[in-house]
Design brief:
370 residues, alpha/beta, Rossmann fold, 7-stranded parallel sheet
């Protein structure tokens, strides 16, 4: 059995691939749940999702890297050293054969701790534009993998996004009619799935709500996931179903003919894997990673991209509705999406963890470090 530490957290983009790898380790028999320790923060989604998945979570301080010189910047390095020492204690206690990191503020101290203790380190970068922790961590290990072709990290291998087997290898593939019936939709009508990510999107929600009648008049129905933090729409009309949260995204994707969504790494990867035509509306805050996440899909011709500020009711009426009304164009987009996603990314990542932890590498002598 392989003892493992998995580091990452904050957003679903970090936590979901981490849990997909944890589940794959257990499925393959490489590790038991007790062999796997997750290091995250107290503030992120990992505080709920990791225990729910049956894995142990320990936390360290969330330390955003300072962007300018001020009092907080002066305190960063002492706090960072403290987080590294805390990470070293956790590693010494768990005695892992390998550490795998998925980015986020929590990962950088764990990367340094693994390097200091000579524990093999594997890093997964979800976004096309790597975050600070993974840019730094990539200098400490030769085992780095990426999701998208645009990602620039030294020595990195393009691998794809580890995803749950409910999406990559479903026990049974739901039919269109069964998936649509699950949400109270017509089994026979073309279905537009709208989602703004795990938290939802006010701008996407407001635009879609303004043009719902136009979409329905074009012969489509709408499954709209508005997000936990957003008010439910007041639109009440047959063919339009709105949900605060969807715990069966596998069925939501199975019901969809096309998608309007943000371009988070996980969403883009799922849309690619399932071969769905997409209109991507990148989140306008950050370092532009969502726009670049969509690049492979745009190059293949399976998606179109519009900025958040341009995604208005007028844009939907002028550009999206004509596309939805062109069955041949939607079919071509679906065909061009085939082969973009990699369904075995979680398995491939676990294989890399095995290679990194092979006996040929000098392993830490935990008995000398107590």
């Amino acid at each position: 059995m392989m003892r493992v530490v998995l580091a990452g957290g904050g957003t679903a983009g970090h936590v979901n691939p981490l849990l997909a790898v944890a589940d794959e380790l257990v499925r393959q028999g490489s590790s038991t749940p007790g062999d796997i320790l997750v290091i995250g923060t107290k503030e992120g989604l990992e505080t709920r999702l990791v225990p729910e998945a049956g894995f142990t979570l320990n936390t360290i301080a969330r330390l955003p890297f300072p962007r300018r010189v001020n009092a907080e910047a002066l305190l960063f390095w002492p706090r960072f050293v403290g987080a590294v020492l805390r990470s070293m204690r956790l590693l010494r206690s768990h005695r892992p054969d390998v550490v795998a990191g998925f980015g986020g503020y929590v990962s950088a101290p764990v990367y340094v701790a693994a390097w200091a203790l000579r524990v093999p380190l594997v890093i997964h970068e979800a976004n096309a534009v790597p975050g600070f922790a993974n840019r730094w961590g990539a200098r400490l290990t030769p085992h780095v993998v990426t999701t998208f072709s645009l990602t620039k990290l030294p020595g990195a291998t393009l691998l794809g996004m580890p995803m749950p087997r409910t999406i990559t290898h479903p026990a049974s593939t739901p039919t269109l009619s069964a998936a649509r019936a699950h949400f109270g939709l017509s089994p026979r009508k073309k279905t537009l799935l709208v989602t703004g990510g795990s938290q939802g999107s006010v701008s996407i929600n407001s635009t879609v709500q303004a043009v719902v009648e136009d979409i329905l008049a074009a012969g489509w129905q709408v499954l709209h996931i508005v997000g936990n933090r957003n008010p439910m729409p007041t639109v009440e009309t047959p063919g339009y179903v709105a949900l605060k949260y969807c715990d069966r995204m596998d069925l939501a994707f199975a019901a969809a003919t096309a998608v309007i969504s943000r371009a988070g790494a996980a969403t883009v990867s799922e849309v690619q894997l399932l071969g769905l035509p997409a209109v991507f509306v990148p989140y306008p805050v950050g370092n532009g990673e969502q726009e670049k996440n969509a690049w492979d899909s745009l190059q293949a011709g399976s998606a179109v991209l519009v900025t958040d500020s341009d995604f208005t009711p007028d844009y939907v009426r002028a550009t999206v509705l004509p596309l939805l009304g062109d069955d041949a164009a939607v079919k071509r987009m679906r065909q061009r999406a085939q082969g973009l996603g990699r369904k075995d990314a979680a398995e491939a990542f676990v294989q890399m963890m095995h290679r990194a932890s092979a006996p040929s590498r000098k392993a830490p002598s935990w008995s000398d470090q107590n």
